[in-house]
Structure formats: C-alpha cells, structure tokens
Amino acid sequence: MAAKSDGAAVCVSENESDLRCLVGPEQSAARPHAHADKRFTLLDCCWVLCALLVFFSDGATDLWLAADYYLRRNYWWFGLTLVFVVVPSAVVQVLSFRWLVYDYSEMSVNPGVDGCDFSTKGSDQRSRGSVAEARTLRVNGTRKCCRVCMWIFQTVIHVLQLGQVWRYIHTLYLGVQSRWHGGPGQHHFYWRLMFESADINMLRLLEAFLKSAPQLVLQLSIMIHSNNILPLQGLSASASLVSLAWMIASYQKVLRDSRDDKLPMSYKAVIVQMLWHLFTIGARTIAFALFASVFQPYFGIFIVAHWCAMTFWIIQGETDFCMSKWEEIIYNMVVGIIYIFCWFNVKEGRARFRLGVYYCVTLIENVALTAAWYIHRGPHTSDFYALIIVCVVVCSYALGTFFMFVYYCLLHPDGPILGTQWSCVEEGMGVIGLGGIGDLGTPLPQPDVVTSPPRTLQRTTGGDREAGAGDRDSTLPVFQVRPPVLPPAPSPRHSGPEGPVIRIDLPRKRYPAWDAHFIDRRLRKTILVLENTSPVTPRIRYQSFSNPKEVTEYETTV
What we know:
Layout: E1 10-15, E2 18-21, H1 42-71, H2 75-104, H3 123-126, H4 129-138, H5 140-159, H6 163-180, H7 184-226, H8 231-258, H9 267-294, H10 296-316, H11 325-338, H12 351-376, H13 383-411, E3 424-426, E4 430-432, H14 469-472, E5 501-507, H15 516-519, H16 521-533, E6 539-543
Parallel strand pairs: 5-6
Antiparallel strand pairs: 1-2, 1-5, 3-4
C-alpha cells in the first residue's frame, strides 16, 4: 500500500532564496499546521499494548484451533485453518521486510551526496569536517558490524512472523523517546513515531482482511455445518472479529493523527467506532456462514461477484491514494475485499450517498442470505434454533447501526450531525470539512461565519452621496467623518534560523488519503535526514492549484 514513488519532484531549501533540487523543479504551496502540541501520552501507550494483545490473541487462538483439528483428525479443517493463518502472515511479512530494506538500506549514505547539502551549520563547524571524517573512518568497522547484526536480527524476526510485534515495540520506544526529549529531538522522534504507526496500521489492516475475516467466516461455517460449537471455535471466531473491528478503528485514528488539516479522534470515539464495526461485521459474517453451510459452491460465486462489483465501484470513483496508477489499482482491489465485510471511505465528497448505498446493499444481501438458509436449512436444525440465529443477525446489525449513529451524532471529531448540514470551525483554521472512514459530506460554511460582504448591500458611490433636504432633519447621522486608518505596522520577522523547506511538486492528497510524505518512502528519508542535520524542524510545502499566490508555511511536527 505505502510504496516508493518515482514521480514526485522534491526540492530542499535552507531559506526562500536558496533551493537545492533533489529531483525536479519547484512549485509548492503550504497549509497551516494544526497539531503542533501533539504528544505521546499514557493512553497512546496503553492503546499500543492493547493492540499487541489483540494481535497475539488472534494468532494464538487460530494456531491452537488448528492443532486441535489435527488432534481430532479433522485434516480438512486443519488445512484450511492453517492456510488462512500462514499465507496472509507471510504476505504481510514480505511487505514489511521490503519497507524495512528500503528505509534502512541508505541510512548511512552521506547526506551531501548528489550535490544536495542538508547541513544548516555554520562555516566554522564545516571547517572541522576533516576531523569528523577521520573520526568516522575509525568507527566504520563498528558500524558495519552493527548493521550486519541488525539485518540478521530483522531477518530472523520476519521469518518467525513477528515483524508486526517488532514494529509495535519500536512504536513504544519512539513514543517514550519523544516524551523524554525536548525541542528538535522531540519532533524528530515524533516524526518517526507517526511513520512507524502508519506502517504498522497499514500492515495490520491488510492482515486483518486477508486472515481474520476469512478465518471468521470459515469457523462460523464449520460450527453451523456441524451443528456443534467447540470452545476453541468460539474463542477463535471472537478474536478474529475483535481484530477486524480494532484495526479499522485504529487505522482511522492514526490516519487522522497524521493529518494536520483534520481534528484528532478521541479514544471514546475510537471505542464507539470499534463497536459499530464489531456488530455490523458480526452480523455480516454470520449471514455469510449461514449461507455457506447450505450453498457451498454458490457462496464462492457470491463473494467473487460482490468483490468485482465493489472494486469496479471504487475504481469508478477515481481514488487518489497511491503514487502510481498500478499501485492505485492494487489498492482498489484490496479495498474491494474490505467492502465484502464493511464500509471503508476512500474518497472525499458525496460520502453520505455512498454510505447509504453501501448499507442498503449489505442489508438486502444479509436478509437474502439469511432467508435462503432459513428456507433450505437441514432437518437437524429446529425452528427454535433457527429463529434464535436469525434474531442474532438482526440484533447485531441493529446494534451496529445504533453505534454508527452515536459516533456520527455525538463523537465525530469534527462535530455532531445537525440535520443535513454539519461542519466544524477550528480555532485559527476556519471551516474544516468532515472526514473519516465514514466521511459524510462536503464542508459547508457555518451561518455565523462571514465569508464575503452581503451581496444585497450595494457600496456607496459618488452619486449616492448627494444628500436630500430630508436628510438634514434626520435625527440619525447619515455621514460620519472617520479618522484616517493607518496601515498596520509590519510584524518583525523572526530572526532565528528558519530551517530547511521541503517543496513537493505534487498537490496535497485530499482526505481520507495519506499525505505524500507518509506513503512515499523517499520523502520520509528526506525529512528524517533533515531532522538529524538541522537544528530547526523542516517545513513542508505542497503544490497548490486553488490558490497559487499562497505563501504561508507551516511547521510539520505531526
């Protein structure tokens, strides 16, 4: 999903008049920064620890259940359960190791290569370069040994399918370091923390819908087909369901935290959103399992047809997530798998309409699948047992819908829904459009925000200023002499070091897509190198087509 890009033009400058291009020409614009004071908190630490617990519980219960099937000589169920554990995990490990290789393969390269000097130090410090170079040569052997040990360690970790565990632990380490360090050190560690959080959430979301979702449907189908529920089956299915709901909510929170143009999501909103997806996905998977227990061949046809329809719908919407066309198509195909189970917003604008269409379609499908099972169920299933299962499906879907309305009406980061118009004014930012996994609309200005002079009031012209006789007898003054308005004194420019400016020759991706410096790993390297070599946090400027004269800059401390 997040991958290297070869098309983004990037320039780095130490100030406005000194540009050193890394790739291409410079055209950029900027946006104000909204979350400069964001810090790693105790709740963030607890959230990461809970995510580790969810990861271990999901994988451990699946492996335990597969071993139980083997001991019971149910080799068919053992094989399917093990396949849905090993294959998705191997795919995620390969992707994680690929990102790791690209991120760290060139970390030891001199920043001044290819004519790009990232140093912002003074000339007196540069004069000591020969001494530093000699000192570097003396420790090259130690660094090479450390790098070899690091690569061996990472290879073993990913072979043991523990790449996600290492990334979670690394996230905790970076969060603690960002708390202990102050000034530029805090910004540097928080940059790396946000990058690592984005990576682990992308990997876990992919793994959840490649492993947990099929595993959940498989175990429910086995329970319904055998008309018997083993404790391990229920435990495995529950862990898979919690993993799915957890990762959707966690992904949405990290995505909002990474965007300076969106308000962060509170943990109350995350929990409610998790309950929303927990119950809707639960109802969906139970309906799938009921249908698959009776119509095994037709269930595969239904899943493929639904996936094709959803993927075509997503591609037709022209999403803007990846840096190349083929990566975008692959991303749309993966989102099509997600759409088999739940709603996932991938494009800004008209989201209310898309959300309504999706839930209408899934409601019709759930009703049809459950009704088909109820009519053609086997004779060993009593009417009372069948009615209980149908009630579970209905109540689960209703509870999920209830929590969805609670989230949007009470806990949405951008404010509650008020009729058909909902928006939020952030202090110092103006009107902010709503977003999220269920971004429900295009931003609308609030009634008390004046965006332009009233068009019904005409400005006074020279001819209108001829007063009549009745005007002199009026008790209220029509014309008043006002003191001359002096132009505001220009504020003194900050005399401290401005730091480097990263100019990206691309328009900024619109929410709910990630910013380019999160999904383009080359930009990540540039930012981290500048963080290490500059005493001031680097600033990022994107290209802007809507306001080419915009010259404001923001400090990206994410």
